[in-house]
Specification:
heterodimer, A: 629 residues, alpha+beta, Rossmann fold, Topoisomerase I, domain 3, 4 domains, six-stranded mixed sheet, 18 helices, 17 strands, flat, B: 230 residues, OB fold (Dihydrolipoamide Acetyltransferase, E2P), eight-stranded mixed sheet, two-stranded antiparallel ribbon, 8 helices, 35% helix, globular, RMI1_N (chain B), RecQ-mediated genome instability protein 1 (chain B), RMI1_N_C_sf (chain B)
């Protein structure tokens, strides 16, 4: 083998394999490493161009994070120190015990390499993992040159291009992650130890359970509990309304009241009487206009999780796992993105063309190429790192399992829908004045389905056609009646709704939201219950007694304090997230963020300790006595 | 030259249609300083008007037959009648009948917790730190949508229910205090309910502090009460 020796390190073995395949063109030797059966070294030759030229490459990977931040061992026992000390205790970063073999492999490869190219995923975590790898390499080879490959899918041409246009690691993003890791460790450990030590002895059902606290977990649980309480405490109320029906040309036209309904029966009766006194209704507006239903925006991670769990009957975590594997195998682009606008440079028609072989939507794709193609709408988000999620190439369905098929199909249909025209229709709005009241009827005719033909998840149907009305004409309605009804409780929270709430309130990133949801499930803070059956079944998130006691207990602990601090509401976490973005932008230092956040949480910790009695009372009430909420 | 009292009485009647009671006016004049007495009539009228809007009309207005509600006003047998003249009234109660009592209670409790909702986002409304001192409290920003049902009272103490038939600016919970004053001009009364429209109602504003406080303190409980009744 000739040329400069280069070490490449990816975030996962599958990416290392895929990249190695592309760069080597298939001429690659696979070598096992000592002590880890998943990580392999791929050895091949490649010309990186420019200053590097022909190189002899070893491509390997880590498996996620390489190191772990820990307290020194004297703090290991939960009773070894008062939990509050963990806010200041020293911490050290060291290679995670079960990752030592991987770290050793990197060191031994780095020793005689000229350069290290980082191929971790291009997001915050990826930048941080990149620095972890760099630190290992520098330990044995201080002069090793470090570069970063910038890529967002594992399609061949894209990878080759990334290999020849290397950039630098983003230290700022890595710093933001380092700050978050320290905060999570200190705050999580302090609160978790405090809660577990104090509350676990209160009831036998808590034996052996860790009552963990996490700054994302808790607001996530807070949303679930909040909705649960709203459902449980809900009181139905009666309402009344007026409905008007008019038969013309044998068509029964139902006019809807512009007030919808009111919560005062006497007022509604009086209003109806005044309609009847007027005898005739007068047509005040007839609006016929073309209308359209907009094609969807390009796909983001949050949207994939929300729409996916709504239409594919899979939970967000599973969807992400499947999307991850579709990405690693090179079928779709990187599935963690906030971007909902396609870059002008991307050749969308070429991507559409790749879908031509498909049995189900190939013909539709052909239609797009034959003139139906439209430039996708652009949303307002761009994370400047990744394009919207889109299919990279076509996959024969027999290569995918059932879940993969569903997710891949969704990504493709969504992409083709983005590149299609809006659905077009004609709507007619008729407004009438009857007594003092206003009513309206609406008719819709769908003329061109366009994107709806491929995006089977959206529904837009023609309604009954309206007879013709003229502005200014008067008629006597056939019927005018009072109807009544009752308000109904909101439904329990579903996962797509929860993801929507987390997104709107800045809890977690698109990459970690589903992890937080999974976490509160495994902690037995919430459970998943099915409502309805068969295809219409909806999975609802219901807090356990433990989850309820924790949230209500904390609310009690902080009740009445100035500035209403809260661990169950999203404000604090949102603040941290904003500050992390400032660290990424370079307008705030890592130390500043860590110190300020720790000060805030330390104060809350002291309050919690002082008012632990209220927390215990909540546990007594909701767990021991199983009281109603 | 007419005396000060007559001048003020005439001014308030002509410009605001408010028939002020001589006793109240005497009282008012006795509370202001000699220096203020010598200010021009329009300025003094403004001061009197301000006090008047924050007074209880039962004490501050005379009850002439043309400026009060007919006694049998609430008779539900009368399908429709129109009241002539201009009648000053004060608001004793205001309710949003377009929104369920329960969701109003939820909104009140959110404000109590220092939160507001903006779409799906929960927003914190309490002031943290000094930099956002000028943020307005949420209660004003979230005025009720209506339509509203109000209880009105004239100078003689007669009460009547009013329904906001068309949106009236300034008439909303959060915007209008209890004891606020309205002028009714040629309103229609149907089945004992006054139909309030922008054409027939002038909002003068003001409040009666004690009434407003009591109303606020009891609002959540009244909403709860309303729910158990239906």
């Amino acid at each position: 083998m000739a040329g400069t020796k280069i070490l490449c390190v990816a975030e996962k073995p599958a990416i290392a394999k895929a990249v190695a395949q592309h760069l080597s063109g298939g001429r690659v030797q696979t070598r096992n490493i000592n002590g880890n059966q998943y990580v392999k070294n791929y050895v091949f030759d490649f010309n990186f161009g420019g200053r590097w030229g022909d190189c002899s490459v070893t491509m390997t990977s880590v498996i996620g994070h390489l190191t772990d931040m820990k307290f020194p061992s004297q703090y290991n026992y939960w009773t070894s120190c008062p939990p509050a000390e963990l806010f200041e205790a020293p911490v050290r970063v060291a290679v995670d015990e079960d990752k030592t073999a991987i770290a050793e492999n990197i060191k031994s490869q780095a020793q005689n390499s000229r350069a290290l190219f980082i191929w971790t995923d291009c997001d915050r975590e990826g930048e941080y993992i990149g620095t972890e790898v760099r630190n290992q390499a520098k330990e044995v080879n201080r002069n090793i040159v470090v570069k970063r490959a910038v890529f967002n899918n594992t399609e061949r041409a894209h990878i080759l291009n990334a290999a020849r246009t290397l950039g630098e690691l983003d230290e700022l993003q890595a710093n933001a992650v380092a700050a978050r890791i320290e905060l999570d460790l200190r705050i999580g450990a302090a609160f978790t130890r405090l809660l577990t030590l104090q509350l676990q002895p209160l009831h036998e059902s808590l034996e052996g359970k860790t009552l963990s606290y996490g700054s994302c977990q808790f607001p996530t649980l807070g949303f679930v509990v909040d909705r649960y309480l709203r459902v449980k405490r809900f009181k139905p109320e009666k309402f009344w309304g007026i409905k008007v029906m008019h038969t013309r040309d044998d068509i029964k036209v139902n006019f809807l009241w512009s007030r919808v309904h009111l919560f005062d029966r006497v007022a509604v009766i009086m209003m109806l009487e005044r309609c009847l006194m007027a005898k005739k209704a007068k047509v005040t507006k007839v609006n016929q206009k073309p209308t359209s239903k907009w094609r969807p925006l390009p796909l983001t991670t949050v949207d994939l999780q929300m729409m996916g769990s709504k239409y594919l009957r899979m939970n967000g975590a599973d969807i992400m796992k499947v999307a991850e594997s579709l990405y690693t195998r090179g079928f779709i682009s990187y599935p963690r993105t906030e971007t909902d606008q396609f870059d002008k440079g991307i050749d969308l028609k070429k991507l559409v063309e790749k879908q031509l072989p498909d049995q189900n939507w190939g013909q539709y794709a052909q239609g797009l190429l034959d003139g139906n193609f439209r430039t996708p709408r652009a949303g307002r988000h761009n994370d400047r790192a990744h394009p919207p999620i889109h299919p990279v190439c076509w996959v024969s369905p027999d290569k995918l399992n059932a879940q993969e098929k569903k997710v891949y199909e969704f990504v493709v249909r969504r992409f083709l829908a983005c590149c299609s025209d809006d659905a077009k229709g004609q709507s007619t709005d008729v407004e009438i004045q009857y007594g003092d009241e206003v009513f309206h009827a609406r008719g819709l005719i769908v003329l061109e389905r366009n994107y709806l033909d491929v995006y089977v998840y959206d529904k837009w149907e023609s309604t009954q056609q309206l007879p013709s009305y003229r502005v200014g004409e008067e008629f006597e309605p056939t019927e005018a009646n009072i109807f009544d009804g009752k308000t109904t409780a909101p439904n329990y929270l579903t996962e797509p709704e929860l993801i929507g709430l987390m997104d709107a309130n800045g809890i977690g990133t698109d990459a970690t939201m589903t992890e937080h949801i999974e976490k509160i499930k495994t902690r037995f803070y919430i459970g998943v219950h099915s409502r309805g059956s068969g295809r219409n079944a909806v999975k609802e998130l219901i807090p356990t007694r433990l989850g309820i006691a924790l949230i209500l207990g904390y609310d009690d602990v902080f009740a009445g304090l100035p500035d209403s601090p809260s661990l169950s509401k999203p404000f604090l976490r949102k603040q941290t997230e904003l500050e992390m973005r400032e660290v990424c932008a370079g307008t705030r230092t890592r130390q500043h963020l860590v110190q300020e956040s720790l000060d805030t949480y330390r104060e809350l910790f002291i309050h919690t300790q002082r008012r632990m009695g209220l927390m215990k009372a909540a546990f007594e009430r909701y767990i021991v006595e199983a009281a109603d909420v | 030259m007419p005396n000060l009292q007559d001048q003020l009485t005439a001014q308030l009647l002509q410009t605001k249609s408010l028939p002020v009671s001589p006793i109240w006016l005497n009282n008012f004049l006795s509370t202001i300083s000699a220096a203020q007495r010598n200010t021009p009539i329009p300025a003094l009228t403004q001061t009197a008007l301000f006090r008047l809007l924050n007074s209880d009309f039962r004490e501050s207005l005379t009850s002439r037959s043309t400026t009060i509600l007919p006694v049998e006003i609430s008779d539900t047998n009368v399908q429709e009648r129109r009241l002539t003249g201009t009648i000053p009234v004060q608001v004793l109660d205001i309710e949003d009948i377009g929104t369920s009592a329960w969701s109003q209670i939820e909104a009140i409790e959110r404000v109590e917790r220092g939160e507001a909702v903006r779409g799906r986002e929960i927003v914190r409304t309490v002031n943290v730190g000094d930099d956002d001192q000028d943020e307005r409290p949420a209660a004003n920003a979230n005025a009720s949508n209506g339509p509203h049902r109000v209880i009105l009272q004239d100078a003689k103490g007669t009460r009547i229910i009013g329904i906001e038939m068309k949106k009236i600016t300034g008439l909303a919970i959060g915007k209008m205090a209890i004891g606020a004053k309205l002028l009714l001009r040629g309103v229609i009364v149907a089945r004992g309910i006054i139909l309030l429209t922008p054409e027939s109602v002038t909002v003068l504003g003001g409040k009666v502090e004690a009434m407003d406080q009591a109303w606020r303190a009891g609002r959540k409980e009244r909403l709860r009460q309303k729910i158990t009744e239906t």
